[in-house]
Amino acid sequence: MHVPDGFLDAPTSLATGVVAAAAVAVSLRAARRELDDRTAPMAGLVATFVFAAQMINFPVGAGTSGHLMGGALAAVLVGPWTAVLCLSVVLVVQALLMADGGITAIGTNISLIGIVTVAVGWGVFVLLRKVLPARLSIVAPAAAAGALLSVPVAALVFTGLFAIGGNAPVDLTALTATMLGWHTVIGIGEAAVTGLVVASVVAARPDLVHGARPLLAERVLETRAAVAS
Amino acid sequence: MSRRRFFVVALLVSLLVAGVASYYASSHPDGLEYVAEQTGFIDSAEDSATSDSPLADYQTTGIDDARLSGGVAGVVGVLVMLLLSTGLFWLIRRRDSGDVTHEATHDSRA
């Protein structure tokens, strides 16, 4: 759902620009906790993979399509603060190099795809991790659930922004219904891709999955206790 | 799987997705464009200031073959992403030990 130039008026674009800049600034500080010599290259690869995956539009019927947004995926793999930065780099490269998403809409796109999907995806994931049994096998389904919800929520936030600063008069009830409807279907694709990718990484290197670390921690603590004694 | 091997596989997958698989992606408008057409605000979209970039719309200027043109744009995009994002994350990473004890470290700080 890359927003092009012209959909939203200047004040709204400016406001989302301020929100995006603040979120990136906070994330630059907070991501330090998530990034070290091992996880920094992983974060670079996750951002790169999200860029590549966003090129794959999958059909969702009736002449429309959707592609991965990747907020939930990145948050579970490398942590939420780093994920905001991953998506921001993707969106800036897309806007500047590929003319995908408007230049004046960069703030809007970072807010929708970089902040909302990360926040919803990670929030749902953490909630599920708390209530589900503490096993590695719950990581991929919990990530998929976060992904599923993140897309329609981002669509709703866009609708809200359009209600405030849309440059064309439209029936907001119809806009809300169609945005929500199509993006619920796209969310199923988002969930499938997110679940598959997270499951693959958990199978290969669970220690590289940020969201899986608390579930691995028990084993690590046991090892360290043995070394200490 | 060693970490190096894992990273190489992840990069190869990204290159294949962007460079080869992208040709087979659906060319239908995405959800937002489709809704904009249906509800009648698609005409408020303006061309991006970068719409004459050599890689605009994931096609490479000067390469006529659609498969190759999209493939080159995808591969260049992946390499730019890898350099920029890995560079950024390497710059802002913590400089202390890089092992799993960091979870315990920031738990004790909390």
UniProtKB/TrEMBL annotation, chain A:
<dbReference type="Pfam" id="PF01891">
    <property type="entry name" value="CbiM"/>
</dbReference>
<feature type="transmembrane region" description="Helical">
    <location>
        <begin position="140"/>
        <end position="164"/>
    </location>
</feature>
<protein>
    <recommendedName>
        <fullName>Cobalamin biosynthesis protein CbiM</fullName>
    </recommendedName>
</protein>
<feature type="transmembrane region" description="Helical">
    <location>
        <begin position="40"/>
        <end position="60"/>
    </location>
</feature>
<feature type="transmembrane region" description="Helical">
    <location>
        <begin position="7"/>
        <end position="28"/>
    </location>
</feature>
<dbReference type="InterPro" id="IPR002751">
    <property type="entry name" value="CbiM/NikMN"/>
</dbReference>
<keyword id="KW-1133">Transmembrane helix</keyword>
<feature type="transmembrane region" description="Helical">
    <location>
        <begin position="103"/>
        <end position="128"/>
    </location>
</feature>
<feature type="transmembrane region" description="Helical">
    <location>
        <begin position="184"/>
        <end position="204"/>
    </location>
</feature>
<feature type="transmembrane region" description="Helical">
    <location>
        <begin position="72"/>
        <end position="97"/>
    </location>
</feature>
<keyword id="KW-0812">Transmembrane</keyword>
<keyword id="KW-1003">Cell membrane</keyword>
<keyword id="KW-0813">Transport</keyword>
<keyword id="KW-0472">Membrane</keyword>
TrEMBL record, chain B:
<keyword id="KW-0732">Signal</keyword>
<keyword id="KW-1003">Cell membrane</keyword>
<feature type="domain" description="PDGLE">
    <location>
        <begin position="4"/>
        <end position="94"/>
    </location>
</feature>
<dbReference type="InterPro" id="IPR025937">
    <property type="entry name" value="PDGLE_dom"/>
</dbReference>
<dbReference type="Pfam" id="PF13190">
    <property type="entry name" value="PDGLE"/>
</dbReference>
<feature type="signal peptide">
    <location>
        <begin position="1"/>
        <end position="25"/>
    </location>
</feature>
<keyword id="KW-0812">Transmembrane</keyword>
<keyword id="KW-1133">Transmembrane helix</keyword>
<keyword id="KW-0472">Membrane</keyword>
<feature type="transmembrane region" description="Helical">
    <location>
        <begin position="72"/>
        <end position="92"/>
    </location>
</feature>
<protein>
    <recommendedName>
        <fullName>PDGLE domain-containing protein</fullName>
    </recommendedName>
</protein>
